[in-house]
Design a protein that fits this description.
This protein is α+β, with helices and mostly antiparallel strands. Helix content is 31%, strand content 24%. It has helices at residues 2-10, 80-86, 147-155, 158-168, 178-204, 215-228, 243-254, 265-268, 313-317; strands at 19-27, 35-37, 45-54, 59-64, 91-97, 103-110, 114-119, 128-134, 139-145, 276-284, 293-298. Strands 1, 2, 3 and 4 form a four-stranded antiparallel β-sheet that branches. It has a three-stranded antiparallel β-sheet with strand order 5-6-7. Helix 1 (2-10) packs parallel to helix 5 (178-204) and helix 6 runs antiparallel to helix 7 (243-254). The longest helix has 27 residues, at 178-204. It is elongated. The structure holds zinc ion (2 copies). The site of one zinc ion has 5 residues, from loops. One zinc ion is lined by residues 285, 287, 290, 292, 305-306, 311, 313.
Length: 319
């Protein structure tokens, strides 16, 4: 259910041009028949899912790996040895058309070791060369390189990028149940995806990168919104209503970025638990454009707002 729901939501996002499919390993050290080993991935042990991502790392689709996963039909590449005997940079290429009529090109290229890549649009041609260091000759040499490898290096590392983002602030959750690990992995994936979408819209709104939220800040904001929106925080027993807000800002400082203490719209405008209180100190009203010094603040948002005969910033701020 969760898998279906996430796939459905991820696919709603318009796709960009450069997409790639790669394996992703969900870290898991326990015992499961689905466990796989992949020495090329940051987490070597775990179970495998196939991921379709763009060059920024956004995941559009994913499938858990099963033993019946379909492979490209009738591909018999030359062996590593055969290619090695032909020299560095040699390759073997196949073309195949699936039942659904999609033509796929597959190239096995031998550099230091063999790599296999497949694509629905890129082939080995036009072939280029790349510069490599030859240890025996102790000099740089030119090695033939199929076009598909060049394109992969330029645009296709999306799944690796998503992997990298996932490792930064992974939810720490220990369980022997592999499906729970998978669930938490998917939550992390959904958060990283949301952040990438946020970045995408920030770019289209021409918000400078310095002003965009880093992944860490974004996660904290999200966590706070999810815990506070739709709730009257005063009702929490034994805990002053503004605690959650304070904790949030303390954590933010650790992320190395000072942010204005105005809560997200989904908290600010949820219409629940926004009550006025008065402080001994005066501070500037937080409604944009208002410079009045006031004692009144919102218990939930923890920001100063004014309300007098002339204006009602308290009301304006919350709607
Ligand atoms: Zn409020
Ligand atoms: Zn005001």
């Amino acid at each position: 259910m969760l898998i279906d729901h996430l796939r459905q939501e991820f696919r709603k996002v318009p796709m960009t041009e450069h997409l790639s499919v790669d394996e992703q390993i969900v870290p898991f050290k326990g015992v499961s028949s689905l466990k796989q080993y992949n020495p090329k991935k940051p987490s070597k042990w775990g179970y495998k899912i196939f991921v379709l991502a763009d060059d920024k790392g956004y995941v559009y689709d994913f499938r858990p790996y099963t033993v019946q996963s379909r492979r490209l039909p009738d591909l018999s590449f030359q062996s590593d040895k055969q290619l090695a005997s032909k020299g560095r940079g040699s390759y073997d290429e196949w073309m195949t058309t699936s039942d659904s009529g999609v033509t796929t090109y597959a190239v096995k290229w031998y550099d230091n070791k063999a790599v296999c890549l497949s694509s629905t649009f890129a082939t080995s041609q036009p072939q280029q060369t790349c510069v490599r260091y030859d240890r025996k000759r102790k000099e740089e040499v030119e090695v033939p390189r199929p076009n598909i490898v060049k394109l992969y290096n330029e645009h296709m590392g999306g799944v690796d990028l998503q992997d990298q983002l996932l490792t930064y602030y992974r939810m720490s959750f220990r369980s022997r149940k592999y499906y729970l690990r998978l669930v938490f992995h998917l939550f992390d994936m959904a958060v990283v995806n949301s952040w990438l979408l946020y970045r995408r819209s920030a770019v289209s709104l021409k918000i400078p990168e310095k002003k965009q939220y880093a992944l860490c800040d974004f996660k904290l904001k999200l966590a706070f919104s999810l815990t506070a929106s739709g709730k009257d925080l005063r009702k929490k027993r034994g805990r002053p209503s503004t605690d959650a807000v304070k904790v949030n800002f303390e954590k933010k400082k650790k992320c190395g970025r000072a942010t204005k203490p105005i809560p997200e719209d989904d908290i600010r405008k949820d219409g629940i638990g926004h009550f006025p209180a008065f402080s001994a100190n005066r501070a500037t009203c937080k409604l944009p454009g208002c410079k009045s010094k006031v004692r009144m603040y919102c218990l939930k948002c923890n920001v100063y707002l004014c309300c007098d005969q002339k204006k009602n910033c308290f009301l304006d701020f919350h709607q």
